[in-house]
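Batch job 17 of 40 flagged for manual review because the log was empty.
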Amino acid sequence: QVQLVESGGDSVQTGGSLKLSCQGSSNTFSTACMGWFRQAPGKEREGVASIGRLGRSQYVDSVKGRFFISRDNAKKTLTLQMNSLRPEDTAMYYCAARDSGLYCNAPDLSPEYYNYWGQGTQVTVSS
């Protein structure tokens, strides 16, 4: 069982930065793929960034060059550094993990790929 707890969400003005963190558990954290997802009111959950166990990453086009995903397997943490924030980035952000007993190397932005989820942290960007 993997437990994920997000933190770092806040309200920020356009152009500002935030760093989201996800604290994981389980001794299989280092073999799992991880991802950040977001969901705005009335919209489907969207994959923002994902990362494989060895650091291969993928980003949705709208955040490329602004957001950066990283992981520390020793600390069992996942981070999303968000820069140049825009109002359209406003959403609840969720940390997710795919841990199915196999090494996960390829990142994936599809929510259905993941089997463990955190409770979310709110990011609000005002203009």
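Reviewer: the log was empty due to a logging misconfiguration, but the result itself is present. Residues 40 and 91 are 4 Å apart (CA to CA). Unflagging and moving on to job 18.
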